[in-house]
Amino acid sequence: MDASNKLQMSEVNFQDQNQERGSEKNHLEYFGIMFDKLSPEDLIGKEFETIEEAETFYFAYAKAMGFDVRKDDKRSSTRTGRVTIRKWVCSAQGKRSEKYMNNNNKVCMPKKVTRWNCPCLLKVRYFKETNSYVVMNFIIDHSHDLVQKHESHLLQSHRSVPNSQLELAKSMRRVSIKTCHTYEYMVDRAGGFANVGFTIKDLYNKLDSSRREIILEGDAEAALAYLKGKAATDTNLFCKYSIDENNRLANLFWRDSNSLLDYSCFGDVLVFDSTYKTNYYEKPLVLFVGTNNHLSTIIFGFALLVDETIETYTWVLQMFLESMEGKKPIAILTDGDEAMRKAIEIMLPGCPHRLCTWHIAKNAQSNLHDPEILSEFRRCMFDEVTPFGFDQLWNDMVNKFGLHEKTWVKMMYEKRHKWAEAFISGHFFARMRSTQRCEGMNNFVKDYLGNGVKLFELIPSLDRALARLRNNVIEEDFRSNNSTHVLTTQLRQLEKSASSIFTDNVFHLVREEIDKVGGLITSRIMRFRSSRVYITSRYNNNEEYECTTVYHYRESNPRIECSCKLFECEGIPCCHSFNIMKHERMREIPTSLVMKRWTKLAKSEIQSTVPKENVPSEALQLVSKVSYLASKTRKGTDILKNELIKLEPVLEEILKQEKEIRVISQTVVIILYKIQSR
């Protein structure tokens, strides 16, 4: 075979073009041909010297294109043991056995489908004459969408825990450092989750199979310099502060560009909480929180306040709205602070305001004590009754336990419109009424902050926590977009429609509503000129629970309205609406019952402006690998030590030059800070 057909891996050119995967996957090439332009004709007949070279090539190609690889057919010579035929396929090759798809007696919910008979493969064969492996077949077509570039690090075949990282995790575990914290360190050192090469679950699994931080002094000037440095790579970062009469930092608010993008998609409901004082100066830390299309917590911004007065809360709300280009939320949830309530009335007049149930439950426990009283109070809080029904429940509780003169009880009755389901029903709060959201925020802060941290420590810590939350979102996007649900209800077409529209977590809620259709009885159907009215009730329940659902079928966009108000309250179609869809033989959910914020396409009209990672992750991983190899022999250790001694002064000089530039930049920030303080 012609020597020109030899494919040397040293000639494969890995070029980072800093382009998003899609129509521009041009970040890897070989022999001048970009991977996304590579055709079967370009590769069939080419030779690899070893199986390892062929495998390395195909794994690099797969990662660049955005698919997982699975090792498939392998044949070896019975005489020599040499591999003669090797095949690698896309992990979506084949399909799940029908017996696993149709078994309706499963105890657990079936796993999502990840195989769709994908034909993509690479096959090589050994030729004794040339002592090489020749490409016999190379299929580039897929039966599914390829993953996005920012998700490619989650593909299983491209993840592995190197021995060097495994040894590091073992060492840290021996000195009582948790594995989760070790992983956070690896992420920080690699320059982001995408550069580590494996997930935290991979690390846990690797440790199990083997049987098993820079703290800097800082103050207000340093904290502002840190934010100034962030602004150099994030041009949309927003940061404003105020000073007190002693020219000291009073209030500080900041948010980055991704928070602005998140708010543009999910800023309809805002959680405003200021219960944390985990810093050296005992300044209240305010979190501006929301929920995304996966029902996960997202952060819109942070603030450090000098106090908790009406004036201070008004200032921080003003800064928040300014940073979000004037967009106001349609509803807000707070911890019940009175000064905060008045500031909201000033800055967001008429905005529906709900009190956080986690704080109410905590205060109830402190004031009521008795478990029986607490149980009755929870009924008043969560029972879906009319305002008249609420008053009956409340009066029964007060009379039964003699709470007429209880100050806290009287105060809570005055605020009932802000916490009782009877009065809040009909307002959209993005499902943020439960205790879990505030508990999640508590964990969010406690995981990263300790008592007495300085401002310069606080802000980078919050950045790391924010990175963790955002990586969770990428993983959720990946799971939602790269697998399909096993359909389990009788309304398969509607369930399939919901599966294609909504993210996983929201889909599960919608499927629960579809399941409830079997427990409904349609007692009457009234037909009008442009609509039909369905009267439904629950099986074995009397007419007290009847629900009225109207189908406006003559409109250009058919519309369904229901008296249960589930869509208005939570943004998902109710079981009564699905009952109408069944009667009307609909195969897809009407667009009028699809709230975009819950869909997979919730962020389709925006583009992330996250600054590109500048950390040379490949170099860092190479250093880690070389250190591991050198540590295995005395000779290797000596060689590495001598080379590092030569390299150290060179790197110190480079670092010195960089520090001089950084000091000049920070000095400018401090001078500006002091000028504004006068």
UniProtKB/TrEMBL annotation:
Pfam families: FAR1 (PF03101), MULE (PF10551). Keywords: Metal-binding, Zinc, Zinc-finger. Residues 547-585 form the SWIM-type domain. The keyword Ligase does not apply. Residues 1-23 are annotated as: Disordered. InterPro entries: FAR1_DNA_bnd_dom, MULE_transposase_dom, Znf_PMZ, Znf_SWIM. It comes from the Eukaryota. GO terms for molecular function: zinc ion binding. Signal peptide: none annotated. PANTHER family: OS01G0519700 PROTEIN, PROTEIN FAR1-RELATED SEQUENCE 5-LIKE. This is SWIM-type domain-containing protein. It comes from Rubus argutus (Southern blackberry).
